[in-house]
């Protein structure tokens, strides 16, 4: 079970909200140039940083989908390793797959979805 708010998320103005049965705010898009927590304020339409904040919002909205894709890759890689067993895989391909798997797992650990 995931610890983050369940999907789907959508952007409504300067808020990212969960729109399912137990809906609620997930995040507030702020002016991206805040230097300290005291500087944080909601982004306003017409702000010179509006486009940047909206792009940040798209990344936030995509986070659950990205995490799901990474978790799926890690699971498929584990199954592939079981299927291949000790069969020889060309070193370049094996290295690429192991590096990609390590990067995917690191992202999932950083997001709190998998344990180290």
Q: Can you tell me about this structure?
A:
The structure is a single chain. This protein is mainly alpha-helical. The chain has one domain. Helix content is 47%, strand content 11%. The protein contains 2 helices and 3 strands; from the N terminus they run βββαα. The protein has a 3-stranded antiparallel sheet, covered by helices on one side. Helix 1 (50-84) crosses helix 2 (91-110). The chain is elongated and about 60 Å long.
Instruction: List SSEs in N-to-C order.
Output: EEEHH
Structural class assignment: mainly alpha
Biggest beta sheet summary:
3 strands, antiparallel
Average pLDDT, rounded to a whole number, is 79
Beta-strand portion reads: 5-15%
Query: Tally of extended strands?
Result: 3
Strand order of the largest sheet: 1-2-3
What's the end-to-end separation, in Å? 17 Å
Q: Give the count of helical stretches.
A: 2
Helix content: 40-55%
Q: Please give the radius of gyration in angstroms.
A: 19 Å
Low-confidence stretches: none
- Overall geometry comes to elongated
Number of spatially distinct domains: 1
Key terms:
47% helix; single chain; mainly alpha; 2 helices; 116 residues; 3-stranded antiparallel β-sheet
Would you summarize the structure shown here?
By secondary structure, the chain is mainly alpha-helical.
Task: Explain the layout of strands and helices.
Layout: E1 9-12, E2 15-18, E3 24-28, H1 50-84, H2 91-110
Antiparallel strand pairs: 1-2, 2-3
Helix pairs in contact: 1-2
